[in-house]
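Continuing the batch. This is chain 6 of the set; chains 1 through 5 are on the previous pages. Same settings as before, nothing changed between runs. Recording input and output for traceability.
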Amino acid sequence: MTPLRRFASSPLGGDRARGPAKPVPRCVLALLVVAALLGGCASPTTGVGYYWQSVTGHLSLMQAARPVQDWIDDPQTPAPLRQRLALAQNIRRFASTELALPDNASYHRYADLQRRAAVYNVVAAPEFSLTLQTWCFPVAGCVGYRGYFDEAAAKAFADSLPKALEVAVYPVPAYSTLGWMNWAGGDPLLNTFIGYPEGELARLVFHELAHQVLYVKDDTTFNESFATAVERLGGARWLGQASEAARLEYARFDGRRHEFRALTRDTRQQLNALYSQTALDDVAKRQRKAEVMADFRSRYETLKQSWNGFAGYDPWVARANNAAFGAQAAYDELVPAFEALFEREGRDFARFYDAVRALSEQPRSDRTAALRSLLPTSVAESAVPSRP
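Output for chain 6:
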């Protein structure tokens, strides 16, 4: 999942998912029964009620999904959506044949969720730190976010957190079940991202499939940086064989993203440097922090003037705080190191994955140090970690 992806607000001409939903498998019904016994009347924002909303939310998403070919063959499917689904299937095949990503049930079905996001994530950080608060779950381990299928529930949980924390709630267009649900149809394509530019659609699919290659418990930065590296490398390879129109469209999209990420990366480094100054008291840090954030927003407004009216990052900038910057860092921090590892392995994806698996077996501090050792000194020194 990625905090800074633009999301499509509606499907391409489709008002609702058509046709009968697939029956829920008996194994999934068993999960529902267990969740019901555990959930009872608990709040959906905390405790066992949280797991209940997670199970029911995901199963609702799965029930809404139908095979992509059914949508393509359905005469009621709008032509633009039919074209995008056909493109998505080409991307899916490319992922397995050219990038050595898993060849399984995921992304061979499509669902229109009738909402703008798949889930809504809550992140939180202290006033003078970009280190995210973590929550621990079965399978996923400890992660720096908490996801909800209902936006109101996400906001309610955010409001319940201690006032000393800075909190952000952001929409997420896609998420991975890490391959655990492939027996039940896998992760589907969604209306929340099917309308992305071709290159970005490819990158999202590659990113989420990368999580099925490898996922390390309790290390969000490693997991997300690895998946982001795969999406960048795979996206470049996809665009190398795409049409000129697709490359131009993506160049405009990605150019804005690179400029924005350069701005946010610089701001993160300023904040990290400020928070590490032990000689400053809280009053002085608070004043300097306000100046850094004001400068960030001013520079953003200047940058935006060159974007011909594009304002897609406005919501992120409006809510920008330590939590938002901390969440973004998890997706960027180690990406250059993973890209250097890919080069070391001869730009061979299978060999690259094997090398990453070997790294994942090391203690967290050792694998992070090993990755940083692959970077040029200037890059390694500028990559100030926001998480321990």
